[in-house]
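Risk register update: the risk of archive-format incompatibility is retired. Evidence:
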Amino acid sequence: MKRTAITFLTTVLALVLLTSCGAEETEKNDAGHTHTYSGWDCNVTEHWRTCTDCGEITDAGTHTVVDGYLCSTCRSEIWDYGDGMYDVSMYDEQGNLVRNTSYAADGTVESEYVHEYTYDADGNVLKEVFYVDGVLTGEDEYTVDAEGERLPVRATYYYDDGSSSVQEYDAFGDTVSYIYLDANNTVINEESYEYAENGDGDRYAFRTTSRSYDEGVIYITEENEYYDTVRILKTDLDGNTLRDVRYEYSYDDEGKKTALKRYENDVLVEEYPEYRMVETDEYSMRFPASIIEYGEDGSKTVSVNGDYGEPVSVTRYDGAGNVTGSTAYTYEVDEDDIIYISVQIEYDGDGNVISEVHFDSEGNEIG
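Archived output:
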């Protein structure tokens, strides 16, 4: 629906839900009462101010539209969609949105988003509260550091099913915890984050702990300064190990990965002895030149990759190191410059051909 600025307003709509914004102001009436205003109220065609003490309405008038959409008096934005539907947005004196109301063609309110702010003496937002159609949906809290930078402290969100979440931050503005609660306010999942600095002075989460109380498990994930995962530990809620996966990396002087080993419960199960870099005009990609997978019985499978990361051969060994079989792949490039397996040959342990299969570019067997 294309939005067009309103140029002329003639229909006065009787609305129950109003729009307001602005800082608190005061003004005396003829009886000597001092009115206190929190800002302007408005609908699609009119604006007015209501005393927060006595309820008297003053300064009512029709919007005076400038720049095609902006009321010069109450500073609301009125947008005409050309089908009888309108949006009205109002901002406070700091320029922050306080209310956005969508009106149907018959003048009824279709939806309304409200923002409430708490400011410090310098005009910094310390808290923002969100409502959708009168229902509280979120609260964001902030602090201001010594340099005047605003940083998040806590974010709380409320969901339609009654559940909620709470996210908390440290003095650097990084998330330190995330808690999810069900409709009974019972903690279902929670995550915590611990940080360190890499050689460039950048902070990174070196350890993330996730507790799933409904599943009865804890996951602890650790990363190194290159943002590579070095450990995934799964335990029950009592701390008993269910699975422990560790990764060991080698890097060159530029911090690029050159080798990888993966362990399951301290047993080596996979190894990338070498990485290869492919660079084209369109992309660059780093991938393992070969992959070795180790079986529990001492067997292993060695896959060798081609120039673009595609497997060109797979060789299988038994626990004594004898070749038990292998597979070789041949590739071709289709009319869209996409490579595909054109031939797959299976060999036994002595190198004899067991089978040879040819494929078209769609992966169908041919010949």
